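## Example record

The block below lists the input lines for one assembly entry, exactly as stored, with component labels intact.
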Amino acid sequence: MTKATETLMPEHTAAHDNLSHEHDHHEHHGAPAGLMRWVLTTNHKDIGTLYLWFAFIMFLVGGAMAMVIRAELFQPGLQIVDPNFFNQMTTVHGLIMVFGAVMPAFTGLANWLIPMMIGAPDMALPRMNNWSFWILPFAFSMLLGSLFMEGGGPAFGWTFYAPLSTTYSSDSTALFVFSVHIMGISSIMGAINVIVTIFNMRAPSMTWMKMPLFVWTWLITAFLLIAVMPVLAGAVTMVLTDKFFGTSFFDAAGGGDPVMFQHIFWFFGHPEVYIMILPAFGIISQIVPTFARKRLFGYASMVYATASIALLSFIVWAHHMFTTGMPVFAEMFFMFATMLISVPTGVKVFNWVATMWRGSMTFEIPMLFALAFIVLFTIGGLSGLMLAITPVDFQYHDTYFVVAHFHYVLVTGAVFSIMAAVYYWLPKWTGKMFNITLAKWHFWCSLISVNVLFFPMHFVGLAGMPRRIPDYSLQFADYNQWISIGGFAFGLSQLIFLVLVIKACRKEGEPVTSQVWEGAEGLEWEIPSPAPYHTFETPPKVK
Amino acid sequence: MQQQYERYYVPAQSPWPIVGAVALFLIAVGAGNTVIEATNGESGHGGKILAVGIVALLVMLFGWFKNQIDESMSGLYSSQLGRSYRQGMSWFIFSEVMFFAAFFGALFYARVISVPWLGGASNNAMTNDVLWPAFEAMWPLIQTPGGTTTQQMSAAGLPTINTIILLISSVTLHFAHVGLEQNKRKQLTIMLGVTILLGLAFLSLQVEEYIHAYQELGLTLQSGIYGNTFFLLTGFHGMHVTLGTLILIVLFFRILKGHFTPQNHFAFQAGSWYWHFVDVVWVMLFLFVYVL
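Predicted structure tokens for the full assembly:
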């Protein structure tokens, strides 16, 4: 789609920079050494790396909590942890995976890639970029620290419904509230940076409809973040005042309503769901054309579909609340609005398939993950369509069917897309090809185990097994053992990925060319591998 | 072939973001512990941690802004960078709009849904019969289903005066901006000074109104959903006016030092946008909390 002219060949850029170096004492080429490089940095590539490593560590921490959950659920009855601790594990697992793993991983990719894809010298506001990142380790150490407080950490589910989070929660709720506040500040600043970068920092000829889809999807994601993270801040603030200052937003005795909490939360929560999947759509739309060696089918329709999904996400929130006793017209409205989303989503899946149609396909590791994404995300999307149907949702609500649904879209959707992205761009970042044998092991182990883990959840859910309960009825025992075995296997498979990434960061492996993948197109593939510390200090010409 | 572009200023390493991150961490931990200790009547270190965090945040803001002002004054900034700042500020204000939207949403939900339903509206006759049969829906909710009573805050008097004050302050700030753009420094200084005084007047009258609410009307933060929405909406608005006034005061001293030119005054523009935004929020508040 986009190509830089010869003015941007690596040799030329280097020569040009050497010349300008003597004239401009503000230049600061190359990475500074030592730990303080990472603490004080304003470089989008450093900050991207920090985000990605932080997300990976949080993915392993949240994954360890999932292992506790699966160990407890391996057999019926209570054996390993007490119910209150089980509740803390489900709660913090969810919070960590959503706010600590998936969102920071996408932000890390945005940091690394957006400036390189649009020909910008860096993010628009580099110091604020650093601030956005460094808030996160503090926010999450606070959240994790609250687990060790008297009375335990948050145990009300990641959705912190009132009155579980108000009347019935432990003191540490105050720390939960303030840690969510500072996470929100981080996300909003990160999103402002992305939007401003895309609006203001594109190379002069990088027009809107030439932008890579990853950039488009992140632009729309950033808009969603700025629109809904403040609403989350409002929700946690009301929980704080209800619990500690005697207000009754969520208490009918004072004229409030616990259901109002759900409305406010899901007004944030549903766009949040798309915040975690739109960048994934962008990634898949970058990868599939490369390995199908064809242009993306229906570029413009992809852009419009992304925007439609984002707009619709604001009017579907109450499909999470069909069983709260809303009036029938509200149930109907939210059911049909939700089903409407399957249209633009279907457009996307169709376009990916049409891109591959009669393409010269090869199956390198990023493509394997992308293909797994397309198939498995579609399964998650279809179970979502089932959940959208109000009358049958009364049966599925709060069962393992819901757990199966959102893990298909989040794990085999969002997480697989992040892994695809890492495999796709890692050689560009390090300059070396990763260990392909390990990557194949990682892919196949993950693919098999993740389906052993999540597919049977559909069955136990349809049969009525409730979620978030540490014990279950005997007839669910066999399936739960399969699920737990799949869970442990999936957890272990990620250690392969950890080893692979560490080896890649230590620059082991064969050197790669600038283009890395034969069919790859776009500005990021026209700069050397590894990408120099500073790129595009003067804007490239885009064809 | 190589076109000539203005270079986009990418700052070198900076210590301020990490100071800011630590400051927010201390504020969050300190505030959390303060709340817990106050609720349980314990003594602890929450307040101290919070205070250290706030001081650290102020140091960070001072240092960070000083860096930026120095960079701006030494001509490092291009017009493209100015656009980044302006767009960044606009999106920040949009995020603030959405923050207030959450509380306005709670207000509308209470007025349109939860209170009428508790009184038996829609298909909720049984809700009323079973839970609080004596409860009658009304707004303002001066008697809650649980039995807490309070009185309504009238729109006449202080709230109306405050509305007029804030509306005038937006006009004076606009004339200050015009003065800056036409390089009439005297008009700029006087009009900005007047705006700051109006802001301070608003804040002191707001304190007066809270005292009136607590001591004479019995309208408190605990008075059910009416008091909750009243104090959270006006309280957060008041915090924003305070911040806005502080921004204007900083701008005032920078103007006395001769900063800003008719072409180049992002900080002034940002402060002014923020002030107008706070003003618009008040108009909405005045309509939906006091008048209607």
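Chain B touches chain A through 75 residues (CB under 8 Å). Chain B is about 75% helix and 0% strand.
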